[in-house]
Fold this protein.
Amino acid sequence: MKYPVSIFSFCLILFMVASTAEARPALETRKAAVDTRTVNTLRGPVSIPANPQRIADASGISDMLCIIGRKPVATSDSDAYDYTRFPSYLEELLAGALIIGYPMADTVNVEAVLAVEPDLIIINPRQEKAYEQLAAIATTIVIEPTVNDWRGDLRMVGELFDTGAVVESYIAAYEARAREVGTTVKAANGSNATYFAFLTAGSSYYLFTDAAYGDMFYNDMGLGIPPDLPEQSSITLPTASLEGLTGVSADYMVVLASADDKAALEASSVWNSMESVKAGRVIWLPQSPYFNQAYSVYGKKLLLDELETLLVQ
């Protein structure tokens, strides 16, 4: 009488084991689906880790990745004038990340990327010639930050990692602070005062009209726009000769210059004939870090605090 019971028990155990074995692949499939996300890239839809732990970013969005809580282990957000170091405003934010290039360059240090053992690699179209090498290391996606539209770029990053709420909160906080600084500056200098910023590079002058400082001054802070300011039609800044600068009549000028370029301007009779120069309303800033900083989503928020002091005279 014991045998039938024993046989029944044995069969029951076999059934339970078989059922568990059959269920396991389904569970693993569901888990895999939860752990990945399909995102749109310049190469079409790509499945990426839903919560990547080791991102190598060569595309130039590392500050944005930090904002949404995805700090990269490798980055190309280096200083525009020295690719071996971080600009000062990103030193703390990106501390510990390995520098693998510069986002506007067309090369990536593939060996360095391999060394950090990434689970996701992000590049921009300028670096696509390294795509096959990088894709052999880890999942690689190609995105194209616009650079001039920082809100759109940040929202694109938020969409990649499903962090839209964090992104909108950051944008709202920045915009509120920018309006506050603009109000302070206009109260100090007059609501009709105009502002203008440019970068010197030898005998060439690059005008911030619609991007970087221009975007911050005119769109974010609501400061006055000087007449006859040229429009910017691409990522490239409009240029002018020294004589051309005299056609931009601004009450306040912010000039990004090296020590040599500053000295050359100050020795120029054309420069010294400008009304804002004669009135002592020129703010001089070094090219590094201030060129990069006005483009950086994280850097421009810090820059607002400095501009609040620099522009109030």
About this structure: Residues 1-34 have pLDDT under 50 and may be disordered.
